[in-house]
Specification:
12 strands, alpha/beta, 41% helix, 2 domains, single chain, Rossmann fold, 472 residues, 20 helices, 3-stranded antiparallel beta sheet
């Protein structure tokens, strides 16, 4: 509304609709879908799985629970739901619980409307004031969520039986909005019981007061399937009150894993660090990281109950980019481009992020290195399998040795070969369109590593981060 009314009577005269928050969200979701937009922006790989279930639940006006492993965008979905709320809504002025101007229920709001009638003042609140997110922890009390007697108000002279002595908790204070509870199974069962009336009867009771608060809410929660048996559980009556369960998942395809990784990662700002151009992570290197994550998700040595999240891929991408920046800063290169040599830093940084089975204790780095080699070989065969590199192999068979490492400058790497047989066909196969020494060096090192893993040339480690390719 362009000219927002400032009184209850003004709202009625302007024809402000009387609808619940679920009806409001459903209408805004339908408007997005009608315009060809998803209800949640920025989700990758969920178009045919998660989004249809989520859209249906919102159109049905259901409270919902997002069930999935860690790093499957559950929290992102929760926080994005705020965009489905109206830009602003009116509430009774001074209301702690966002009383609807047409249906005030708190003592203060009822008194204001009783005294002023249609001239009772209203104020407008934005989306962010109508969204509350609470991480469930065992120390949460009923008072935090619902409310309790405020001793300060009692000390000011009110009787203990006076309902004005109540200090409302998180849920009543976000009436007419969205309440999101992250990791619901971590909430103590006695606290979950306190949510039963909120979920079904839509009212709350505080310390035995005969005070009924008919709350207007959308309740959304997240949970990990393993939490039902490991850290806690959702009590059956509470599960029954959620109208819909939406299952999330990890990216189903390699391209989706790459897209999420690139979208979510925040690589180092190379320009701010003194480099004239942003850091470049070639597409084939992104695919190696994505294939590595997917290999871990299928590895029997990894505890699959804990999962390998998309945050793992994102962190590896940022580490890979940072290693390229480190090389450029140390060697004086103008361009930071990620190469296979930077994968050593990725392995070093990610070892503590993966939960291994107990019988694999002591073999963690060995397993990670093996799966990283498998991922690189997989991408090499897919990308460069049809490129004729026999001329390059012949050079090594004739006695060529090439030294490289995570601190070897691109010019130094390329300078060891006066000509790279097959490079003209390799670059298009790797989708390297820009001609630059740094990108050419990255493509060459990728080819050398692929030939080594294909057992066509040899490689010896000279020390930490330094190695030399030679004849088989």
């Amino acid at each position: 509304m362009t000219n927002r009314p400032a009184t209850v009577g003004g709202l009625r005269a302007a024809g402000y609709p009387d609808r619940t928050v679920k009806q409001e969200i459903a209408a805004n979701a339908a408007r997005r879908l009608r315009a060809g937009r998803p209800v949640i922006d920025g989700l990758v790989g969920f178009d045919d799985t998660v989004l249809p279930a989520l859209e249906t639940a919102l159109l049905a006006g259901h409270d919902l629970i997002l069930l999935g492993e860690r790093g499957q965008a559950k929290s992102r979905i929760l926080r994005s739901l705020v965009d489905l709320l109206d830009e602003a809504v009116p509430v009774i002025a001074g209301s702690e619980v966002h009383d609807h101007p047409y249906h005030p229920f708190s003592p203060a709001a009822r008194a204001l409307v009783r005294d002023h009638g249609e001239d009772a003042p209203v104020v407008w609140i934005g989306r962010e004031e109508r969204f509350a997110e609470k991480l469930a922890t065992p120390d949460i009390a009923v008072a935090d969520l619902i409310g309790d007697v405020d001793p300060i108000k009692v000390a000011e002279g009110r009787y203990l039986a006076d309902e004005l002595t109540i200090h409302f908790g998180l849920i009543p204070r976000h009436n007419r909005g969205i309440v999101a509870i992250n990791e619901l199974p971590d909430l103590a069962e006695r606290i979950q019981v306190a949510l039963l009336n909120v979920m079904e009867e839509r009212d709350v009771q505080v310390r035995g007061y005969s005070l009924r608060l008919p709350l207007d809410l959308l309740v959304v929660a997240t949970a990990n399937p393993e939490d039902y048996t490991n850290r806690g559980r959702i009590i059956t009556p509470l599960k029954d009150r959620f109208g819909a369960e939406v299952r999330t998942h990890y990216p189903l395809r390699l391209t989706e894993e790459v897209a999420v990784m690139v979208q979510e990662a925040v690589p180092p700002d190379a320009v701010a660090l003194g480099l004239p151009a942003p850091v470049v992570v070639p597409g084939f290197m992104s695919e190696v990281l994505a294939a590595f994550t997917r290999a871990l998700r299928g590895a029997p040595e990894v505890n699959q109950r804990s999962g390998v999240s998309v945050r793992f891929s994102t962190g590896n991408y940022e580490t890979l980019a940072a290693s390229a920046v480190r090389r450029s800063v140390r060697t004086g290169e103008d361009r930071a481009v990620a190469r296979p040599a930077d994968l050593a830093q990725v392995l070093s940084a990610c070892i503590g992020k993966v939960e291994f089975e107990t019988f694999e204790e002591g073999r963690e780095i060995e397993i990670l290195e093996r799966l990283m080699r498998r991922a690189l070989l997989e991408v090499f065969r897919r990308r460069a399998g049809g490129v004729d590199l026999t001329g390059l192999v012949a050079r090594f068979n004739a006695g060529l040795h090439v030294e490289s490492g995570d601190l070897t400058a691109s010019a130094d790497l390329l300078g060891q070969l006066d000509q790279v047989p097959g490079l003209a066909k390799l670059l298009p196969a790797l989708q390297v369109e820009e001609e630059s020494p740094a990108l050419a060096a990255a493509a060459l090192e990728f080819a050398l590593e692929g030939l080594h893993l294909s057992r066509r040339i040899d490689r010896d480690d000279l020390g930490p981060g330094t190695f030399v390719y030679g004849p088989k």
